[in-house]
């Protein structure tokens, strides 16, 4: 009993002293030495990224022959947890890979603004916005990530539709879906187990729902959650679910990669996929053949809107503020985004690279359609939201599909979360 | 529970030895020490502290100090308020977060489901002990899932319980409408707990079988001679005879459910659908890893620690009482 009292006393003293300071060290200290740069990512360990890493290393060692570069491939599942630990302790890699959007914006405190170093690359590369905050760039984009609507031309033919001219309006699209349903396939392959399905939905269809003004305001941070068009995004999501357009059990289907598998095995005619990494044109080409894979633009829901491709910088390398010489580290980022390196990445890993000068004519019509749409493309709607709001949106979207929440209530909760963050 | 373990390991130090040391130092204080003079007595007085110092240091440096750092950290802010003292803000945020409340509610659900998790291996062990036909076969089959990692178990059940998976195909064949096992928030938590019990009950079964080995067979024979039914044998002979084993299994099962369901949750539901399968551990991981809120995660960890402390102390008490009954 005495012993327990002692432990309690220790605990109480601990609690009493708590709050006297932070356990985190915000002071700077270096990861690698003067002549060594450490890079963290989740890509370099993959065989498909080998050529990319070699090209980038060669490019960098031509500029800085005395600096060695060490790539440390972390498991993606753990990546941001490990990075969080490194940032907390103020020690870690000099250069690190980030997903664009919330993941990097939440962590810019630990990064060096790169504007002065990457000025020359601004024109050649696309997707900077996803790596910027408050007008400063924090990473060089490697790939572009976006949400094209892929469709299976073979299923269109089977349903008696013209695969060369997919629907351009929502009403026509619903009619096409009805025909596809009669032919024995679902309209959408949807995996919303992780709650990511709604993000893809919002970004892929948003440009046909929001007016151009609303769209730009949304990206700029002036999001009007009371707008009927914003509400329409979630209404359509619910209607599509209620009408049985999605595969059964969407809330328990993993997007990666069960929903893509449904599309690849021709059980569903459309899927909102990705441009890079996984669930993209290269994967689908292998199963459906390049000739049978199409990319369509969003059907117009609100009259007067001009649908555009939603894309952002996908992944990009940033420089930690504790690195010894930011100039050298920024040079490494420039090597990692050089045309040669990115050409290798596009060809081997199946990504739409950030370098717009790369020729993709060998990759099939779907990739060509995507690249052609890049010029008129806009940032994806969901990327503008904080990770907290995205997490909530995932849960709310599941509730919408299961019918346990109304659209009004869902939008209300999201608005509160968005405005609080 | 390191604290729970620390007690018994300290206690068995024979009281005789402590008395002896006291007597020795008392003797030398009187100046009658025949060996060396004061140097020796001082060494003897400090020896126990020196000897336990490594163990204490390890506990203090590697357990208590990080624990205090974590608690301390939970009173600071995240993001722009990094490093600033924010008082109980993180705890208030936790209380207001419906997700964290769901996680705590699920802990309560686990406690409620504990009797089921204990009864299943108990009953099965009873049948094996009573030598039902094929008991040898069942003994090994029941233990088998215990050697699988939660990730593999989760992946297996993901396939089985998918909406278009084999279980629902069987259901449809039997004319029952399919169930979205992992997509229905009212069902998912029970499914995950069920899979967890399936995956871990083998270990408890072995413990029960070991307990049966100490059960006096003469009592069973006597009960049978007196004409007791199976239910009566279980109620009046087996349960009282195994009270210690039951208490032990209850404690280990509870700890297992509270601390090692992360892998299953991660693979099977990712906390969904609709956030219905969150547990504090998973919540902590999401806040720290995905939301970049380490201080909030520390606050949640502290709450989880306090819960575990309370549960642990209650269970130690329970174990002791069960031990004292006979």
TrEMBL record, chain B:
In which organism is this protein found? Micromonospora sediminimaris
Protein location: Cell membrane
Q: Does the keyword Cell membrane apply?
A: yes
Q: Which UniProt keywords apply?
A: Cell membrane, Membrane, Transmembrane, Transmembrane helix, Transport
A Gene Ontology annotation in the biological process aspect, one of them, is: transmembrane transport
Organism superkingdom: Bacteria
The membrane topology of this protein is:
Multi-pass membrane protein
Q: Which residues cross the membrane?
A: 46-65, 107-130, 142-163, 187-215, 245-268, 295-314
Residue ranges annotated for the ABC transmembrane type-1 domain, each copy included: 99-315
Chain residue ranges for the region called Disordered: 1-40
The entry sums up its family as follows: Belongs to the binding-protein-dependent transport system permease family.
Instruction: Name the major location.
Output: membrane
Phylogenetic lineage: Bacteria, Bacillati, Actinomycetota, Actinomycetes, Micromonosporales
Output the CDD domains linked to this UniProt entry. TM_PBP2
Any keyword Calcium?
no
- The protein, known as: Sugar ABC transporter permease
Q: Which residue intervals are annotated with compositional bias (Low complexity) in the record?
A: 16-28
What InterPro entries does the entry give? Answer: MetI-like, MetI-like_sf, UgpAE/MalFG_permease
Q: Per the record, GO CC terms?
A: plasma membrane
């Amino acid at each position: 009993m005495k012993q327990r009292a002692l432990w309690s006393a220790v605990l109480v003293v601990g609690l009493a002293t708590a709050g006297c300071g932070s356990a985190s060290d915000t002071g700077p200290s270096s990861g690698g030495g003067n002549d060594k740069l450490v890079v963290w990512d989740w890509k370099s360990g993959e065989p498909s990224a080998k050529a990319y890493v070699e090209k980038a290393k060669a490019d960098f060692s031509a500029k800085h022959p005395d600096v060695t570069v060490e790539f440390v491939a972390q498991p993606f599942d753990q990546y941001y947890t490990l990075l969080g630990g490194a940032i907390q302790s103020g020690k870690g890699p000099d250069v690190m890979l980030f997903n664009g959007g919330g993941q990097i914006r939440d962590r810019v405190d630990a990064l060096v603004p790169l504007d002065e170093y990457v000025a020359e690359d601004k024109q050649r590369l696309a997707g900077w916005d996803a790596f910027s905050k408050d007008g400063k760039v924090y990473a060089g984009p490697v790939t572009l990530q976006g949400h094209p609507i892929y469709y299976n031309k073979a299923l269109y033919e089977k349903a008696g539709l013209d695969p060369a001219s997919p629907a351009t309006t929502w009403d026509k699209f619903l009619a096409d879906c009805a025909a596809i349903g009669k032919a024995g396939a679902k309209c959408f392959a949807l995996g919303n187990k992780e709650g990511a399905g709604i993000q893809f939905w919002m970004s892929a269809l948003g440009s046909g729902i929001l007016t151009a003004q609303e769209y730009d305001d949304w990206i700029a941070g002036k999001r009007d959650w009371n707008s009927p068009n914003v509400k329409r995004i979630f209404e359509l999501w619910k209607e599509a679910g209620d009408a049985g357009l999605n595969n059964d059990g969407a809330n328990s289907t993993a997007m990666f990669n069960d929903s893509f598998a449904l599309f690849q095995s021709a059980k569903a005619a459309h899927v909102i996929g990705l441009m890079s990494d996984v669930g993209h044109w290269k994967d689908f080409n292998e199963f459906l053949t390049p000739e049978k894979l199409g990319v369509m633009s969003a059907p117009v829901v609100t009259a007067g809107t001009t649908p555009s491709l939603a894309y952002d910088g996908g992944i990009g390398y940033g420089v930690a503020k504790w690195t010894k010489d930011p100039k050298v580290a920024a040079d490494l980022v420039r090597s990692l985004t050089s045309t040669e390196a990115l050409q290798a990445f596009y060809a081997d890993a199946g990504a739409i690279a950030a370098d717009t000068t790369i020729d993709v004519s060998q990759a099939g019509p779907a990739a060509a359609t995507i690249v052609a749409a890049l010029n008129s493309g806009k940032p994806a709607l969901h990327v503008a939201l904080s990770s907290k709001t995205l997490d909530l949106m995932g849960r709310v979207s599941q509730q919408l599909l299961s019918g346990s929440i109304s659209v009004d209530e869902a939008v209300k909760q999201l608005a509160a979360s968005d405005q609080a963050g | 529970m390191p604290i729970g373990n620390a007690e018994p390991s300290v206690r068995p130090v024979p009281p005789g030895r402590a008395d002896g040391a006291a007597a020795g130092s008392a003797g030398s204080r009187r100046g009658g020490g025949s060996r060396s003079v004061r140097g020796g007595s001082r060494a003897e007085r400090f020896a126990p502290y020196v000897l336990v110092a490594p163990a204490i240091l390890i506990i203090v440096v590697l357990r208590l100090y990080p624990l205090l750092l974590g608690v301390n950290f939970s009173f600071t802010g995240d993001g722009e308020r990094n490093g600033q003292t924010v008082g109980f803000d993180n705890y208030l945020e936790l209380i207001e977060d419906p997700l964290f409340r769901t996680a705590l509610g699920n802990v309560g659900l686990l406690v409620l489901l504990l009797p089921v998790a204990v009864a299943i291996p108990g009953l099965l062990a009873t049948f094996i002990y009573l030598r039902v036909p094929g008991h040898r076969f069942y003994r090994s089959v029941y233990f088998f899932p215990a050697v699988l990692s939660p990730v593999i178990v989760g992946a297996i059940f993901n396939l089985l319980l998918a909406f278009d998976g084999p279980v629902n195909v069987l259901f449809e064949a039997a004319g029952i409408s399919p169930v979205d096992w992992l997509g229905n928030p009212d069902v998912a938590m029970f499914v995950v707990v069920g899979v967890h019990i399936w995956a871990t009950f083998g270990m408890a079964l072995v413990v029960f079988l070991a307990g049966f080995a100490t059960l006096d067979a003469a009592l069973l024979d006597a009960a049978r001679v007196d004409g007791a039914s199976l239910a009566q044998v279980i109620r009046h002979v087996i349960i009282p005879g195994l009270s210690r084993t039951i208490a032990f299994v209850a404690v280990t099962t509870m700890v297992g459910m509270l601390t090692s369901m992360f892998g299953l949750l991660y693979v099977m539901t990712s906390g969904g659908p609709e956030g219905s399968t969150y547990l504090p551990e998973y919540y902590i991981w999401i806040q720290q890893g995905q939301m970049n809120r380490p201080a909030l995660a520390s606050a949640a960890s502290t709450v989880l620690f306090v819960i575990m402390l309370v549960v642990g102390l209650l269970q130690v008490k329970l174990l002791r009482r069960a031990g004292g009954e006979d």
